[in-house]
Amino acid sequence: MAKPIEFNLFAPYNEAASLIGSFSDWKPISMKKREDGYFRTTVELEDGDYKYKFRVQSKSWFFEQDQWVDVTDPYATDIDEMSGNDDSVVHIKDGERVVDTYVWQHDDKHLPANEELVIYELHVGDFSGGEDDPHARGKYKHVVEKLDYLSELGINAVELMPVKEYPGDYSWGYNPRHFFAPESSYGPTSGLKNLVDECHARGIRVIMDGIYNHSESSAPLTQIDHDYWYHHEPRDPDNNWGPEFNYEHYDENLETYPARKFIGDTVRYWVSEYHLDGIRYDAARQIANYDFMHWITEEARDTASMKPFYNIAEHIPETTSITNADGPMDGCWHDSFYHCIKDHICGNTFDLERLKDAIDAKRQGFMGATNVVNYLTNHDHDRLMVELGNNNIFDEEAFRRLKLGAAILLTAMGIPMLWMGQEFGEYKPNTQESSKIEWGLLGNDLNRNLFEYYKGLIHLRKSNHALYTENVDFIHENPEDKVLAYSRWNDEGSRVVVVANFSENFLGGYQVSNFSNNGKWHEWTGNYDVEASDNSITIDIGPYEAKVFVWQ
């Protein structure tokens, strides 16, 4: 039984538009524009799947005046990319539009609070699948197959690199063309929902990387009326990745900010339809509009309703203004942490004040533990194993230094984030070509041992809540021997002390003064107990090694 289905297109200053689709043999059906700026028409459709597009007289400056162009629905929730035409796809069931028929199973599961997070950044296409077949592609379902591995590691949040539909079959996703449709080469919309659902079943939150600074150059809105939604030209040509949304432009006739309206719609849609638990805002420094960011983070939180939500800015270099009292975001990528620890692990420098700034971001002006996201690497940087190799540091020596980095990452103030594969010493440089994780490395002793080290530190972090706080005391500084020790604590009596040796020297019988409590401490990395008396302990500490003491 056919039911009337409405199609609408917001194009307030375009002269005319029509609907074309598989239901009309691609012959145009005229659409009528109302005072609200929408062209509308209804079509009687039986249940099923249909392809369609809009034909519109463009207002974009790079076309002839009022030239007719065929555009994908900017609000299409599914795209047929295989056709080569980026056709919009509409699914009709019981006389209504549906995205899919997925039934959520695990919405009632408890999810960790922001301060408890250990984030794992991954790229769907490269994270999984394809160990045996060099051409097998990673799909949502292959990530699901790896979730038990992430659970064993202790991960409780995954951050997916962008999964909005981009041109072609391989990309990092920073060139989104269709803002409501997930990347079809990774699987169907129900596959992405199942991935989120299976994460929730294991107490793992899902953070999505969102691109709101720009779109891919031929995204539908660019074709309809470019300067209505976008800046006419790049504001910073050296940092330009496509047409940039213009969040300042206000349409007085319709009393709306067009770009804000569109991005607000897409954020609310993704949080509600895909049950997201957080968003990373790419290129926040280029968006450069705190007014808009305040509004969009509030929209995301309101849509998430009662459950925890985490809004993270990628603002390089980081700035306290984006997270602090008046700032729009909960957290900010802490890029100076990465640069500092990398330089120290590679032995290029020893700078106590810089190390202290990285470990205690309050010294840089950040306010709390969730305001910074620390990392030793991410998709934008090569893994530390690559950096060490560039410095001619290999094999056991390299793994020793990777462990030192891990100890600092998981005991510094802030939220730790891993980039896929770093937990077992993946050594491939980052490339914008496909570069799948080398899972076979886990069969090697050194790689497996690093994995177990990360797993133990993550468990320590989750069981010792001193590491959730913003409390850091630097208790021992020795620039000559390149040793730094710091204490993490909370008001319930939990304490962790980290002693880090950034030198190539074995330090035997080394005395660490200013220990916070006398009595018994457990050294976590070597699994032994040690007594502190007269507020100091004496230890042996190897080159580029961290000792982690837990108050008993």
From TrEMBL:
GO cellular component: cytoplasm
Domain (Glycosyl hydrolase family 13 catalytic): residue spans on this chain: 121-461
Protein name, as recorded: Malto-oligosyltrehalose trehalohydrolase
Site (Transition state stabilizer): D380
Residues annotated as the enzyme's active site: D282 (nucleophile), E314 (proton donor)
Pathway named in the protein's UniProt entry: Glycan biosynthesis; trehalose biosynthesis
Keyword line: Glycosidase, Hydrolase
PANTHER family listed in its UniProt record: GLYCOGEN DEBRANCHING ENZYME
UniProt-listed CDD domains: AmyAc_4 (cd11350), E_set_AMPKbeta_like_N (cd02859)
Keyword rRNA-binding (UniProt): no
A GO BP annotation: trehalose biosynthetic process
Catalytic activity annotation: hydrolysis of (1->4)-alpha-D-glucosidic linkage in 4-alpha-D-[(1->4)-alpha-D-glucanosyl]n trehalose to yield trehalose and (1->4)-alpha-D-glucan
Subcellular location, record wording: Cytoplasm
EC numbers for this chain: 3.2.1.141
GO molecular function ontology, one term from the record: 4-alpha-D-(1->4)-alpha-D-glucanotrehalose trehalohydrolase activity
